[in-house]
Design a protein that fits this description.
mainly alpha, elongated, 5 helices
Length: about 170
């Protein structure tokens, strides 16, 4: 027999999921705004403390909420009628969640640390460095992409588009 959540447990898990998603979206937006603000810095110390703030956001408002979102999303999908691979919208949210988490781990985190290294070496002159510029722009583009993905996932949660995954397609892909 498949385990199903009762209404009270489901409501608690949904609340945790929504709070973690809200934190993740807020963290992503905060990170994007701080990284964007770097271009308006007027001295090297300002660059450093702005990047330090971005690292705090990365560590606390991106990693943990993203992980909690993934875990609660999986639990909600397998412990309710939606299933993890029964509906396209759930499957799409799962894939996009994994994608945005991997982008954060593999790129955004490393790029932010790289900007810190450049600023520590060069100070305010880092703003004129071509590697700083290209890394800065990469963070802006990818963080914006992640924010769009998070917004899209929020919309499809409520709209539930695309219908059910056909059982035949599932058997063929297996």
């Amino acid at each position: 027999m498949v385990y199903r959540l009762n209404q009270k447990k489901k409501s608690i898990l949904v609340a945790i999921h929504v709070l973690s998603v809200a934190s993740w979206i807020g963290g992503t937006l905060g990170m994007l705004l701080l990284i964007g603000y770097l271009k308006f810095a007027t001295k090297g110390d300002q660059l450093l403390y702005t990047l330090a703030s971005a690292e705090v956001i990365d560590e606390n408002l991106l990693k943990y909420p993203a992980l909690l979102t993934l875990i609660t999303g999986i639990l909600l999908s397998v412990w309710t009628q939606w299933g993890l691979v029964k509906h396209y919208w759930v499957l799409m949210k799962f894939v996009l969640t994994l994608l945005t988490i991997m982008i954060g781990i593999l790129f955004l985190n490393k790029w932010t640390m790289y900007l810190v290294e450049i600023v520590e070496k060069m100070g305010f002159e880092a703003l004129n460095n071509s590697q700083f510029q290209s890394t800065w722009l990469s963070i802006i583009i990818i963080a914006s992409f992640n924010l769009v993905c998070l917004a899209f996932m929020t919309f499809i949660t409520y709209l539930k588009p695309f219908g059910k995954v056909k059982k035949q397609k599932l058997k063929q892909s297996a």
